[in-house]
Amino acid sequence: MFDNQKIGMIGCGKMGSILLRGILRCSLVPQGNIRVADAVKERIEEIREGYPGVRSAENRDLVRESDILILAVKPQNMPALLNEISADVNPRQLIISIAAGISTKAIEKHLAGPVRVVRVMPNTPALVEEGATALAAGSSATAEDLETAVRIFEAVGSTVTVSENLMDAVTGLSGSGPGYVFVMLEALADAGVLLGLPRDIALKLAGQTFLGAAKLCLQAGKHPGELKDMVTSPGGTTIAGLKALEEGRLRATLIRAVEAAALRSKALAGDE
Ligand SMILES: NC(=O)C1=CN([C@@H]2O[C@H](COP(=O)(O)OP(=O)(O)OC[C@H]3O[C@@H](n4cnc5c(N)ncnc54)[C@H](O)[C@@H]3O)[C@@H](O)[C@H]2O)C=CC1
Ligand SMILES: O=C(O)[C@@H]1CCC=N1
């Protein structure tokens, strides 16, 4: 599917380089078919050290040479970037944007033409091929474009396709979600340390508990409440811990975190 396609990526920071690694690991295209661009020279040097076959180019040259163009710069940098490349994009290209909050409509408007855009929200566990990615097609993107984008992100984890009005919710939940989980992991490990466990053992137990519980929930296809009940013996230890969580309003706090991040995603659109 990708053999003769040239992929160009503008923005090789945290998320861009994770994606690049996934694309190359799965051999979606040979290294020679990938071009990268970044405003910071050191980022390009790091990539060329890691992947000697990947070539770099200036933004506009890269756009002209790409069949699939991945835009992985910060939302705040998108308007200037889109203006810079607007004369070089063409309707034969597929444009994939991973920028939080930036709608396909805004991209289409900046590029001033019938461009095929797919908006994507990945997350950092893509680094270990356990990413959760949601995709939404823009007005001119074809079913095949969406399928192409899905194939790229399946290289780094699992994917869902949603309608674009749900992308802010996705951003608040799975896009930002790893940040919440890392804070919870750190807190669980700190608790272990408080109770006398060595830090490395506490972190290992906390991490494996998250991993195992998430896998059990996804694979068993059971409601998390039912799985929670399986752990919770009458008069036992878990219910004592759960009572403390309820007193600390953990659930309401998590719901508010996702809501706040989704609102911020929506607000980034206003910054366009
Ligand atoms: N970090 C994360 O967990 C996730 C990030 N995203 C989205 O991915 C995008 C990138 O985020 P990060 O990788 O975290 O940011 P980052 O700051 O690590 O990377 C952005 C890169 O873009 C480069 N850049 C900025 N303007 C440029 C321009 N005009 N031309 C060429 N390069 C340019 C910067 O030098 C930088 O290396 C953002 O839009 C963000 O919303 C999406 C999902 C998760
Ligand atoms: O914090 C951010 O803005 C990016 C988007 C989703 C995850 N990280």
Automatic annotation (TrEMBL):
Residues 164-267 form the Pyrroline-5-carboxylate reductase dimerisation domain. Pathway: Amino-acid biosynthesis; L-proline biosynthesis; L-proline from L-glutamate 5-semialdehyde: step 1/1. One of its GO terms (biological process) is L-proline biosynthetic process. NADP(+) binds at residues 10-15, 72-75. Residues 6-101 form the Pyrroline-5-carboxylate reductase catalytic N-terminal domain. One of its GO terms (molecular function) is pyrroline-5-carboxylate reductase activity. NADPH binds at residue 59. Its EC number is 1.5.1.2. It is an enzyme of class 1 (oxidoreductase). Keywords: Amino-acid biosynthesis, Cytoplasm, NADP, Oxidoreductase, Proline biosynthesis. GO terms for cellular component: cytoplasm. Belongs to the pyrroline-5-carboxylate reductase family. This is Pyrroline-5-carboxylate reductase. It comes from Syntrophus gentianae. The gene is proC.
